[in-house]
Each structure stands twice: as structure tokens, then as C-alpha cells.
Amino acid sequence: MTNQPIFYDTTLRDGNQALKRPWNHNEKEIIFRQLLALGIKVIEVGFPASGEMDFNTCSSLAQQAPQDVTVSVLARATKHDIEQAALAVQHASKPRIHTFIAMNPLGLEHVLQKDIETVTDIAVNAVRYAKSLLPANGEVEFSVEHFGDCRENLPAVLDAIEKVVEAGADVINLPNTVERFRPMDFIRMVEKVHERIGDKAQISVHCHNDLGMATATTVESFFAGATQLETTLNGIGERCGNTNMYEVAVALYNSDIHVPLRMNKFYETAQLVSQMANIPIWEKAPLMGSDSLAHRSGIHQNGANKTKGLKKGQYIAFSPDLIGRYDGEHIGFTGQSGKSALFDVFQKSGYPFTMEEAVKFLPAAKKLADEKGELTLSDLDRFYRTEVCHVTGPFELDSFERISQGKYALSFYKDGRFCEVIGRGSGPIESCVTALASLGVAIAIVKYEQQMLNDKEQESAEAVTMMNIRQNDKEVVARAINRSTTRSNIHAIFNGLNLLQK
Ligand code: KIV
Ligand code: ZN
Q1: Residue range 448-453: average pLDDT?
Q2: Average pLDDT in the 460-484 region?
Q3: How far is the CA of 92 from the centre of ligand 2 (A)?
Q4: How far is CA 497 from the centre of its chain?
Q5: Protein residue whose Cα sits closest to atom 1 of ligand 1
């Protein structure tokens, strides 16, 4: 076994044939270029005998392919298909004809209505004919269609494979055309083929995903002797699709296998293919799903935070950068989350917030999230304004106006009673504090910070004040938000006065 897999991409053939609207020439060319950008060296570009459009596209892509890229096209094991295939790839530097026929008992009896010996002869002749039409460096790939269903007649199929190899097949492809059984059953069959043909031909696997295990089967087949892995971008293909290239690549990479692809282009490729195929990426799709890097439970959030930036994350299977995904891990706040998540979501959304505040506001935030689900940006904004920056109580600010330099008029309600007073000081905060003190409300500001919220957009910038206010031996942390920096400060003092009463 080599320790480097060859990725054979069949997006333009198996993927395309399953689309609700198969791609036209230009669209295929876009995908072809993206495959080259990924570093794919064997590309199945289509099925020339299926029609004029695909024939022309296949021959155009064959001409455009770089010298080190093998261009493969599909052909049934018939004279006409093979001739069309040979014509379509004639200008490729490295042409390949991929011919196939079913050998599973069900297919032999009901579809082909032929015995295995007859089908073996057809396969052998197809391979010989394909080989005869290709230049010396041309390759022939032979697929035992429905190989995964050949459990009952495996000995006869192994004999057929041996004959096909003797006839000149360079690659023996083993498709799990319909995924019905355990990956291990398939892998044992791959091992048997490997035992039988050794290195006389390359072994390839081509798995469909009917039971959702195509990636597992493909990855394990590599360790059982298959060196060519047939996959598609985004896992598109017949029914539930083909094996997903990105998943196989990352699984092998994580297993210390060298993956000869530009994996950092995977994410952009997935977006492109999703758009062009008109198939959205499921939010929980491995690697690519919009929600696949999210942590919502307190335990997971804690583990994720504590291993952030390390080579390996406690709750993430790969580094998002590896696949060119730069949105990173997402911490979402729900009723299942904890204080570090609350801290994280406010911080990341640009709201000044401390861990002490996270502890304090956790019960209210959890209650809200229990009702609403994960808190959105607008939920967070509302919560910040109504819970964090607005405290009701006996004190209610009415107005605070500058009279002259160092002199301010303050009016407010205390337990519903209207109070008016003049305060003096070097600035508004000191004037407010002295005004309150003159009415017997003695407080001290022991810590003060102010910062701008949304300060990227000057017009909507708001000031957020944080103050530690002390009265006797009690200290509270008060916040307020306002477009005016002065009003933000004075509101914070009044929020603090109410907190001191609680
Ligand atoms: O799934 C399959 O069996 C195929 C073959 C044509 C290789 O796509
Ligand atoms: Zn297939």
C-alpha cells in the first residue's frame, strides 16, 4: 500500500448526472477549474455517449487539462460507448476510459439477464477494446458495478477481476453502488481483491451514501489496500450522493496520512458547489455546516474555551483553518449554557461586560433563553439595555442640566417624591455626587470606565459607562448606555443607587 491516496473526482460525472438541472459546458468548466485549484489529479469529466453536449464538454475539458492531470470518461462496456469515450479524451495528455458492467447476482439475473461468465467476457473485451483505442500512456479503469452486492458470488467476481486485469485494466474500481450493509463487509471484500490481484492493478473504491457511511467505508478501504478513492465535491451524486471528498481528506489527514490536496480551498469550494448545484449545505453537515462549529452546552463551551488556540480542541475534530474556514468556533447562549458563554457572547458582540456581570446576569439570561432558544444579536442587545443598563428602584432620574462651568441642576424622584438640587464639582459626575450628598445620599465612585459601543459607525455610537459605586460597606457595579456621555454617566449613578437598595 502506498501511503498517499489518489483522489479521483467524479463530481462532473456521477455528481452531475444526479442534479435536477445538470450543468452546461460553462458550469462544468468552472467546477473543473476549481478541481484543478484543489490539486485533484484524476478527474472524471462526464459520459460522452450520453449526448452531444456532454461529448463536446468532455473533449473540451480533455484539451484544457494540464499535462499532469488524468482525464477520465465513463463508457458502458459497449463498442459504441467505448469509441465515443476514446474520441472524447483523444486530446488529453493523460487519457483514461472508465468502463463498467454489473456483476451482482440481482443485476445478472434481472437487469442483464446474463450469467457471470458471459459478463466476464464482455468486461474483458471492453477493456481490451478500450486499451486498443488509447495511446500508449492511456489507461483503462474497469468498474464492477454493484461490487458491494457481490457477497454471494464473490469467488466468481474475483475470477472475473483477475481476467480483466490480465486484459489490461490499469485500475479496478469497486463501487458500493447502493450502500446496503456494514462498511466492514465491504472492506473485507476489498481485502480479498487486494489479496487476489496484488499490485497488478490499482484498486479503487467508489461508495454511495445510502446509509450515511460512505466516508467510513472509503477511509477504511484505503487502509485495506485501495489507493484510489472516488469522491465528489459536497458529496453530490445519485440518491444520497457519493462519498464526500472533504470528509475523507480530513479523516485521512487526522490519521497522519499525507493528503495531496489544497485542503484550505475546501470551504470556498463547498460554497461554490452548493450555489451551482442549488443544493444548500445542511447546517449540521460535517466540516461545512454553518452550525457545525457551535458549542451550546456549558460543559462543551468550557472545554472549547480552555483549549482554544491549541493544536487540538477538546470539542472540535479539526482546525477550521485547515479547510479554509475562518469563522471559527461559535459559542451560542441557550438555557444549557453557562457564565463563560454569557461572557463570551457579550464580548464577541462588542458589549463591554465582565465575568462578574456574567455571574450576576446568568439566571436572567438563562430564563430568557429557556423561553426563546439561543439568544440572537437583537436579544442580546435588548437584554443589555433592559437588564444590564437599566435598574429600577426608589431612585428615578428626572433631569441633569449644566447651568454654568462646574454647576449643574439635578432633579429626580425618590420613592415618588420630587427632589431638586444644585451640585458643584469639577465635572458632571462630581457635581451629581455632591448634589446627592447635599440631600443626605452619600456615595463614592471607586472605579469608572466608559467605552463606545458600535463606534465603527460614528452616527450610531453610544457610550457605555461602568461604575463601581460604594455606600458604607456595600459596593455595586452599575452600567448605563446613552448617546450622550454625560447622561450615560448620570444614569449609571442612578442605576447604582437603586442597586444599593437591593
Ligand atoms: O455507482 C456506480 O457503480 C457507478 C459506476 C458507473 C462506477 O457510478
Ligand atoms: Zn456511482
Answers
A1: 93
A2: 94
A3: 23
A4: 48
A5: 177
Whether 13 is in the pocket of ligand 1, judged by its Cβ within 6 Å, is: no
DSSP 175: E
* 49-105 pLDDT tens trace: 999 999 999 999 999 999 999 999 999 999 999 999 999 999 999 999 999 999 999
DSSP 396-449: EEEEEEEEETTEEEEEEEETTEEEEEEEESSSHHHHHHHHHHHTT---EEEEEE
Atom of ligand 1 nearest to the CA of 145: 3
Per CATH, the number for 6-261 is 3.20.20.70
Report pLDDT digits (tens) over 374-430.
999 999 999 999 999 999 999 999 999 999 999 999 999 999 999 999 999 999 999
Q: What spacing in Å lies between the alpha carbon of 74 and ligand 1's midpoint?
A: 9
Tell me the backbone φ, ψ of residue 295, rounded to 5 degrees: -120, 130
Amino acid at 363: P
Quick check: CB of 100 below 6 Å from ligand 1? yes
Is the beta carbon of 177 within 6 A of some atom in ligand 1?
Answer: yes
- Give me the residue spans of the domains in the chain: 6-261, 294-372, 395-500
Rounded to 10 degrees, what is the CA torsion of 279, 97, 227, 270?
-20
Q: What global pTM score does this model have? A: 0.88
Distance 152 CA to ligand 2 centre (A): 21
**Chain mean pLDDT for the chain:** 96
Task: Indicate whether 2 pLDDT > 60.
Answer: no
Q: How far apart are CA 292 and CA 313, in angstroms?
A: 14
- Count of beta carbons in the 10 Å neighbourhood of residue 384: 22
CATH code: domain 395-500 is 3.30.160.270
The model's confidence at residue 1, banded by pLDDT at 50, 70 and 90, is very low
